[in-house]
Fold these 2 entries.
Entry 1:
Amino acid sequence: MTPGLILDSYDDGDRNALADTMTVMVRAFDPVFGEAWTLPQLAGVMTMPGTWLTLARVDAAPLGFALIRSVLDECELLLLAVDPLWRGRGIGRSLLVDSLNTARRRGITSMNLEVRATNNAIKLYENIGFEYVHRRPGYYRGNDGKLHDALSFRIDMLI
Ligand SMILES: CC(C)(COP(=O)(O)OP(=O)(O)OC[C@H]1O[C@@H](n2cnc3c(N)ncnc32)[C@H](O)[C@@H]1OP(=O)(O)O)[C@@H](O)C(=O)NCCC(=O)NCCS
């Protein structure tokens, strides 16, 4: 556990929260894969009902975030990211566990996610209990034009 780590959740497009999220976004995603979202994309999804954002901060500095969208009793992990300088300290795991707990409190019974097949985040998902569902060959196209398979995972939660 990272000392002083604070997790704050937002159900709307709070300006400061969006700015803090973008601070992490531009640092966390390797541009070669073209996976980072823009501020308008983020602000747009935050206007959708059932979407929430959790920010991880230490001393008010944003270090990571998780973005979830829910529909009825299902939800999807849209993005999970931690600043490269703060990785390997359990912040990604804390954000994901917190998101699962929030989902449970909201009566949600499953979380789905889709991830590039070469992403190290898969280890984290499997450690937490996500199960592999299926593979979509060549689903993502990187900024360099290369195609990458997508894997989908799912976890069912007991309420
Ligand atoms: C995925 C990510 C959020 C993990 O954040 P993190 O804070 O480093 O994760 P944690 O410290 O909580 O790691 C939890 C587990 O995940 C695994 N893991 C996470 N990142 C890893 C990496 N880069 N290499 C190998 N294993 C990794 C480890 O098995 C670790 O388990 P351990 O605690 O037993 O060692 C972070 O690497 C990241 O921001 N990646 C870029 C953005 C991205 O691709 N997000 C996922 C798709 S949206």
Entry 2:
Amino acid sequence: MNKILSLFFLLLSLQLFAGGGEKKDTVQALVVSVQKDDPFDLDSMSGKDIISLIDSLLDLDAVPANLAKEINAYAEEKLLKHDFYISLTGFYDSSIYPSNSLYQKWDTYNLYPYRESLREKDDEVKLIIADSLNHCNFVPPIKGLITSNFGWRDGRSHNGMDIDLQVWDPVKASFDGMVRISRYHPGYGRVVVIRHYNGLETLYAHLHRLKVEPGDVVEAGQVIGLGGSSGRSTGSHLHFEVRFKGKALNPRHLIDFNNNCLVSDSIKLIKTKWSYTAVPLGIDYHTVESGEHLYGIAKKYGTTITNLCQMNGIRRNRPLRVGQKLRIGG
Ligand SMILES: [Zn+2]
């Protein structure tokens, strides 16, 4: 699934800043120009204008795909620049509930009760995701074929990744943590949500059997349920989500599903107006220069075009832009 669309999902999914119709004229003009295939130029707009624009798009019934792509390409570039984020915070505390100072809420019924949670200080958050001292080991929930990626699917957002499995296959906790949810949900079926010590939460859906209860302390690799097809599901698979403060992250930004390991031992979550985007720490970006193409870039960093496309959510045939930042590695 195209990362651009995933990012767009992030933009649209939250609706934290819905309202405000003053930009509607601009939006309508853009929509009309997109429908006519006229060129439009987001680069001439300021960051604030773009945010208002996206804000207004939430009022529309449907957003033209071209416009969504442009906005996301723009946001993707800007997000990697320093002026979009400011402060650093970390969350370690002594409560029995993992990351309690961050959430101040331990809800064992609602999957994501964190609507109010984005705060000024959360502009940029560094999370250590693999650190045995801080109980942050990683084990893949199940090793299997990815059948659906995070992002936009059939006109709906897909908040996680689908991994193929057989009914009864053991599903494991990805990181150490405490089980917050273990219940039946009409959509997710039998579902487990684990809160981790770094503030991330992971969700495991469509299970056939639940093997843990809320409050259980689990270790990475511990079996938390058996795979199945419960809830709204066609065929047995694991639907796996990674969230921070209720906001879905693209699991591929943390986890290298080809090798079943972490992309990086720590990540930086950069708050956007609407959500977070996860950027691996210790992994550099390549800035596209004139005349460069995916083949050359992949070769330079010892990776494959497929990997580059997956990491960056781009299609092979999409032309690269000069100045575009590409994630390398993972
Ligand atoms: Zn799914």
